[in-house]
TrEMBL record:
It is a peripheral membrane protein; Multi-pass membrane protein. The keyword Transport applies. GO terms for biological process: endoplasmic reticulum-plasma membrane tethering; lipid transport. One of its GO terms (cellular component) is endoplasmic reticulum membrane. Belongs to the extended synaptotagmin family. It comes from the Eukaryota. The keyword Transport applies. It comes from Bos taurus. This is Extended synaptotagmin-1. Residues 1-13 have a biased composition (Low complexity).
Length: 1106
């Protein structure tokens, strides 16, 4: 048991801590402290150097002094002023001063840690700031046993760090920049001085599912890390470092199974203090001015990794749930800080050498963790009125503090006027605090109003919050209505750079003028970031998230995504957790993100919402003429008046099948050896151009690709088709042909072999079909299923409908700066396709009279996004129109005034949808009952017969059969999966189409995240394995995904198709739960009929189909 502090000053016969050679609890043979080491080693010194050694030392000393004169000689030889020499001398002296201060600080800190008890007893009556935390605070415990464990582990931690830096960090540095390819760690030593824990505080009563520890750590180490870039003969390093701070450790979640704790989270609540002693080339960082800058940059790097809101997470169990939530949890709440005023500040300005006392020019710094704000300066005022508002995210309660420091602005160095600190837990308890707080270290008080804003997971009170915020006077930024947390997980199949080089992708996320960037992941097109970003939102109904995936040089864009935040308002718990398709990127390029929105609600009885005025936009659509006006005002139109050509567009489907007898353009060995060609097709029509894929070394290539383009009936249009041979330099011409568009529009279908012109040989097989939109949704399901089967694997998803939009005008748009009318324009967008109208100058009632058309692939899920913007004034209003509303409208058309989402202004537009039904795909409706088994269900089934070879071309015939059987039977205990299996003899491919699942089994508390895995038995390798995308938290997922296997029909009939429905057990886990499976013997299925059929899922033991 250690002696108490009071005993150390009493007249006890036992030796005092100062006199003891070692602590009583340690064995006598333990090494003594640092102050005894010189005496111990003095007797062991060698006798001394010889004469040769002394001569060498003298010569070395003389050479160093001679080198000092070299800069003087060079300055004179180059004709430079003596000022350069003086400047260099001053720089050197400043560097020496900074180095000596750092070395002295390191020596003092080491001495303090080596003999903490002795110095603690000696400084017992000094200020509490100089004592360890376990002396000053009774709830902080001394953990000397923990320090002994750390000291024992320290050498082995050094071995681990050496391996980590050499095997992980060094390769990453070498790969990040071509100039660092010779980067290496030449020396890694953590030294003999381990990290010490000066005190431990355990926070009890916070949560029964976690343990909170605050560790007061201090590291004054003699570590030495040297690096070298051999290519440039550059050496640098660190020799000695100090790091002091409070590290919070959270053990959560606590479980009823070993190892009891699921994960460990670590972070600094506030920035730790850092002092580094540089060596080598990094000695330059000790130059005055650069020294503080370098330490600040390093602390910024540490803060980006280990200071709130960032944290280090170490999972202790493999199947831990919600790993992303533990790594980047939602904030506990938001504090809105109103910095109102101060009074009674001290006067710091003096004039005439202090004879005349002036006032002060005060400003305030407000900090919460890493979030900092600076107010404006009030000149010559001891009672300033700021009236500014800031919003900060609170991540940890208790622990984080609100700190306000007041300074007097001066030309040289600002004078300190005082500070105040307040634990955020007090704001949480009070809800609202409106008080004058005394300033410590100075005189006066500061007036703060602090409001705790709770986070709401639903949009029920959004209008109330927005209305309240409109009545809040806030500077410099308007008050926020919500926060958005973006968990950026990963990306897939990003495009490569020039030369097929792997990119170094990073992501820029922007909301209005706020942009945040992710880290760069080097040399991969499937990067994993696992980062979180947080944004404040003023109006989530009108704002949007802009995502740009770029190479780390910022010059090359790898993909983009624009997401209206209004989508989150209708999502469950204001959360989207899914893959997002990237535009301006590869065909399969996509980004996985989890977006969580939370509304900011001030829940206190002290707040009274202002009376709700008439909401702009709640328009009276009764267009009765105005009375009592001296001027006749024309009535507002109820409907649009487009011209006669609106809505008359058709869609032309271009099917590029194959070519024959192309000429060979590749030559080898100077033309002596004749090769083949690498052909591709280029099509031009209606201002659009399309490229097919390249088929390597084939004079009879087969592309089988489908393209779609919107066309009008304007006479004289032609489809231009050119065939080229792909080369490294310039592509070779293989022929061209033209097709009159009038011919195709009049006949509706064209299937021909076209002779290529301007070349000796070659012909091209094209199939062209005109699709006329129909104003009825009765055939939509048939069209979607037909498209899923006739769509080729190399083509984009086929359109099921055509959307035509006519935007006529807008009214009552908001004014700029309250008085000036805007110069508005509008953008219409569906998915990746957008249209921008003309700009109408300076009016709140613009008239555009413009139309646009869009190809729609999934009318049930897509939406029309409209934004009205002003030149130089940002967004004036927005509208999101789900196309599902058009599907239930009369003749699939809506023609009326629409209120903009921000509640100010309206637009008059017409939106009409037309379903695209193919007349030449062999679709026939039959009344036919198809029974597969006892559990077969009566419903719409699509089957494809074997193609009939006619004189024109092979044709894929499909039938839609309707059953008159009794109502469908209930699903089995494990649920059902709906799929189509058929053989495409023209392509020599087995095709499987996964439609959906229903009534799946729920194993745990939450619904599963299902996907379907297909395996073509008896092969179990990756070559035959296929997998759908994953759907989040649903028992009835919709997939609608197509898969293909290239194999002959006789081989397909010998195979079995294993269909397994699985679920990911957690967000980051690789484990998969089997929800059910079915095994289909393809020999027992008529592959020429390929019916869409429901199958009962079975356990793994019973694999038979139902």
């Amino acid at each position: 048991m250690e002696p108490s502090l009071g005993d150390s000053s009493s007249s006890s016969p036992s030796p005092s801590p100062v006199d003891q050679p070692y602590p009583p609890s340690e064995p006598p043979d333990q090494p003594t402290t640092a102050h005894a080491k010189p005496e111990q080693s003095s007797g062991d010194q060698p006798a001394g150097p010889g004469a040769a050694g002394e001569a060498l030392a003298v010569l070395t000393s003389f050479g160093r002094r001679l080198l000092v004169l070299v800069p003087v000689y060079l300055a004179g030889a180059m004709g430079l002023s003596v000022g350069f020499v003086l400047f260099g001398l001053a720089l050197y002296l400043g560097w020496r001063r900074v180095r000596e201060e750092k070395e002295r600080s390191l020596r003092v800190a080491r001495q303090l840690l080596d003999d903490e008890e002795r110095l603690t007893a000696k400084t017992l009556y000094m200020s509490h700031r100089e004592l360890p935390a376990w002396v000053s605070f009774p709830d902080v415990e001394k953990a000397e046993w923990l320090n002994k464990i750390v000291a024992q582990v320290w050498p082995f931690l050094g071995q681990y760090m050496e391996k980590l830096l050499a095997e992980t960090v060094a390769p990453a540095v070498r790969g990040s920049n071509p100039h660092l390819q010779t980067f290496t760690f030449t020396r890694v030593e953590l030294g003999e001085k381990p990290l010490r824990i000066l005190g431990v505080k355990v926070h009890t009563g916070q949560s029964k599912k976690q343990i909170l520890l605050d560790l007061n750590i201090s590291y004054v180490g003699d570590l030495q890390i040297d690096v070298e870039v051999k290519k440039y003969f550059c050496k640098a390093g660190v020799k000695g470092m100090q790091l002091h701070g409070v590290l919070r450790v959270i053990l959560e979640p606590l479980m009823g199974d070993l190892p009891i704790v699921g994960a460990v989270s670590m972070f600094f609540i506030r920035r730790p203090t850092l002092d580094i002693n540089w060596t080598g080339m990094t000695n330059l960082l000790d130059i005055p001015g650069l020294s503080s800058l370098s330490d600040t940059m390093i602390m910024d790097s540490i803060a980006a990794f280990l200071v709130l809101p960032n944290r280090l997470l170490v999972p202790l169990v493999p199947d831990l749930q919600d790993v992303a939530q533990l790594r980047s949890p939602l904030p506990r709440g938001i504090i809105r800080i109103h910095l109102l005023a101060a009074r009674g500040l001290s006067s710091k300005d003096k004039y005439v050498k202090g004879l005349i006392e002036g006032k002060s020019d005060p400003y305030a710094l407000v900090r919460v963790g890493t979030q900092a704000f600076c107010s404006r300066v009030i000149n010559e005022e001891l009672n300033p009125q700021w009236g500014e508002t800031y919003e900060v995210m609170v991540h940890e309660v208790p622990g984080q503090e609100i700190e306000v420091e007041v300074f007097d602005k001066d030309p040289d160095k600002d004078d300190f006027l005082g500070r105040m600190k307040l634990d955020v837990g007090k704001v949480l308890q009070a809800g609202v605090m409106d008080e004058w707080f005394p300033l410590q270290g100075g005189q006066g008080q500061v007036h703060l109003r602090l409001e705790w804003l709770s986070l709401l997971p639903d949009a029920e009170k959004l209008e109330q919050i927005l209305q309240w915020n409109r009545g809040v006077s806030s500077r410099p930024e308007p008050p926020s209505a919500a926060i958005l947390v973006v968990y950026l997980d990963r990306a897939q199949d990003l495009p490569l750079k020039k030369g097929n080089k792997e990119p170094n992708p990073m992501v820029q996320l922007s909301i209005q003028d706020v942009t945040q960037e992710s880290k760069a992941v080097y040399s991969t097109n499937c990067p994993v970031w696992e980062q979180a970003f947080r944004f404040f939102l003023q109006d989530p109904q009108s704002q949007e998230l802009d995502v740009q995936v770029k190479d780390d040089s910022r010059a090359l864009t790898l993909g983009a995504l624009t997401l209206p935040l209004a989508r989150l308002l209708t999502a469950p718990e204001l959360t989207l957790d899914q893959w997002f398709q990237l535009s301006s990127s590869g065909l399969n390029s996509r980004l996985y993100m989890k977006l969580v929105m939370r509304l900011l609600y001030l829940d206190t009885s002290e707040v009274r919402f202002p009376a709700m005025p008439g909401i702009p936009g709640a328009w009276d659509l009764d267009d009765s003429p105005q009375t009592g006006s001296s001027v006749d005002v024309p009535p507002r139109p109820c409907h649009t008046t487009p011209d006669s050509s609106f809505g008359t567009e058709n869609v032309l489907r271009l099917h590029v099948l194959e070519a024959q007898d192309l000429i060979a353009k590749d030559r080898f060995l100077g033309g002596l050896v004749k090769g083949k060609s690498d052909p591709y097709v280029k099509l031009k029509l209606a201002g659009r151009s399309f490229h097919s894929r390249v088929v390597r070394e084939d004079l009879n290539p087969r592309w089988n690709e489908i393209f779609e383009v919107i066309v009008t009936s304007i006479p004289g249009q032609e489809l231009e088709v050119e065939v080229f041979d792909k080369d490294l330099d310039k592509d070779d011409f293989l022929g061209r042909c033209k097709v009159s568009l009038t011919t195709v529009l009049n006949s509706g279908f064209l299937d021909e072999w076209l002779t290529l012109e301007d070349v000796p040989s070659g012909r091209l097989h094209l199939r062209l079909e005109r699709l006329t939109p129909r104003p009825t949704a009765a055939e939509l399901e048939e069209v979607l299923q037909v498209n899923s089967l006739i769509q080729t694997q190399k083509s984009a998803e086929l359109a099921a409908a055509l959307l035509s939009v006519y935007l006529e005008r807008a009214e009552d748009l908001p004014l700029r700066k309250g008085t000036k009318p805007p110069s508005p324009y509008a953008t219409l967008a569906v998915g990746d396709t957008s249209h921008k109208t003309k700009t109408v100058p300076q009016t709140a009632t613009p008239v555009w009279n413009e139309s646009a058309s869009f190809l729609i692939r999934k009318p049930n899920t897509e939406s029309l996004e409209l934004q009205v913007r002003g030149e130089g004034s940002g967004t004036l209003g927005s509208l999101s129109l789900p196309l599902s509303e058009l599907l239930v409208a009369d003749r699939l058309c809506l023609d009326r005034w629409f209120t903009l989402i921000n509640g100010q202004g309206q637009v008059l537009l017409r939106a009409q949808l037309g379903i695209l039904v193919s007349q030449h795909s062999g679709v026939e409706a039959h009344s036919h009952s198809y029974s597969h088994s006892s559990s077969s269900l009566s419903e719409l089934e699509l089957w494809s017969g074997l193609p009939q070879v006619t004189s024109s071309a092979p044709e894929l015939r499909q039938r839609l059969t309707h059953s008159d059987s009794p109502p469908e039977a209930p699903a089995g205990p494990l649920g059902q999966v709906k799929l189509t299996v058929w053989y495409h003899s023209e392509e020599r491919k087995l095709v499987g189409f996964i439609h959906s699942c229903r009534a799946l089994r729920q194993n745990g508390r939450d619904p599963p995240d299902p996907y379907v895995s297909l395996l073509l038995l008896p092969d179990k390798n990756r070559g035959t394995k296929r997998k759908t995308s994953q759907k989040k938290r649903t028992l009835n997922p919709e997939f609608n995904e197509r898969f293909e296997w290239e194999l002959p029909l006789d081989e397909a009939l010998q195979r079995k198709l294993d269909v397994s429905v699985k679920s990911s057990s957690s967000f980051m886990s690789r484990e998969r739960d089997l929800l059910g499976k079915v095994q289909l013997d393809l020999a027992e299925i008529d592959l020429s009929q390929g019916a869409a059929q429901w199958y009962d899922l079975m356990d793994d033991k019973d694999k038979g189909s139902s």
